[in-house]
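In the previous chapter we treated chains in isolation. Here, by contrast, the input contains two separate entities that must be folded as one system, with a combined length of 535 residues.
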Amino acid sequence: MVAQQINSTRRKRIKLMFVLLMLALPAQFYVVYNYANMYPCVHMPGFRPVLDDNEGNLFYADTKLYFVTADGKDVPVLYTELFDQLPEFFARHTMKRLFKYNAPNEAIQVDDITAQWLRERSVTITGAHDITALKLVTTDYRYRKEEPKDPKLTTTSVNLIPLP
Amino acid sequence: MSLKENISNRFDQWVFNSYPMSSKALGLYRILYSIYLLVWGIPNFEWIADNPNSFYNPPAYSLGALLDGFPPYWFLEGLSLLVVLLAILLLFGWHTRTVSILLGLSIIVGKSFAFSFGLIGQDIVVWFIPMLLSFSNWGSSFSIDAYTGRTQNTSTQYWPITMMSLFLGFGMFTAGLPKLLGGWLDPATQATRGHFFTQYYVIGDLKLLAPYMAHFTNKWIWEMMDWVAVLFELSFLVAIINPKWVRRILVVAIIFHTSTFMVLNISFHFQYSLYLLFINWAFINDKTYQRIGNITAKLFNYKVLIAFMLIYVPLYVLSQKFMLMPGQLAPSPFLLLGEWLGADYKILVGATALIPALGIVAWQVNAARNS
């Protein structure tokens, strides 16, 4: 096995590169620590006590999407259909960010461009031209001591995004 | 020897001599890495262009932050095709150093936009391999460069491998720290179980052991999983000090990834190409290298290279047009064929990737026994 001879100047540069990289670790610790505290449960699964013994603890929320027609009918749509150009994991994340997936009681605000895009997607997916809104139905699943195997639906919230 | 000299020597030893690999070992690794790309998925960026700019949310310090929105489709399609061509050239070892740097840069540029949806994927570390390994002289054996006499220098450098171990340690630490801060070690909570329920009920369609685990209620087993996950991810940063520790923890890592795949159906197949870099390459004997040399001497020439491109590239383009789901990694035509025959794509990728992963475990265990 022949190891390449590296001259001392290059050697020093390489070592300096390693030292600088290692010095980045405290900075990385700081960023991860702050990021995790800024967005407790949205981005970091487990950043909230999950499945502990306290009855009523929320351990996951499930959002279902519906297009609402002019006569009030709900047309179900999967998030993978809505964001069909995104990988599944990215689609979920984009849905969380745009529609505040984990904060069902906040008012949903989307900008005009996104609303227009949703409108176009509604026509493509359903073929209907009378879609007036996108409805998000969020189901919170909470732990129940007496039925640990079967998490139960306890709350439902509905949000509407009017489409142009 | 003073303390300062002692520390300096140890640091020197760690940086430059931790992972000795011969020219032939590096050549073989280059071939395996390229095959991994061509079979389990090449980064693809075409899907990015079809999204509205309101989704554009690049990290503050990335190439993506220089633009206001996603690049046009022609750019992303061209970049994706360039990555495929460069991966094939890397396999055959044609102008290896230049091709490796270009491949690494192309992937990192594309990933800058792929990670502009507000999420940075876990695969990021793997894409530094071509760029860093280009400095190791991994094209000096089993390559067109070697067989045509373009590269005659077979001496190698080991520090790029040590640097990859540092990146791996950082990556694992980033995954482990939020779990540690988030209370995963608190025996009153079972975070893995909570995470599993989200995957099982919200995403649904989980297979293998998942239906069984949904009804598995032993609190202490679930708690043990929380501890193993945190300790395993954080221990990488300590283990990188010693290559032997890295090799041991990689065996644990593969077992851990296998269990994650069986329960959560999340495949970490992209990691295996990185783990392969750190195994003990000294245990491959000359006879094996002789055989590999005989095969590559016949195959690695311009005629076969062009023929391979003429077959693979159209298949790749066609598979992209007809692929069923967009993904960060373009499925190879071979895996798409499996899906077309009725296999579940996610399971197919994870299960096939287990074969080389378990090979790494067997190799490492055998090396440890013989050492």
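The longest strand of chain A covers residues 58-69. Chain A touches chain B through 59 residues (CB under 8 Å). Compare these points with the single-chain example from earlier in the chapter.
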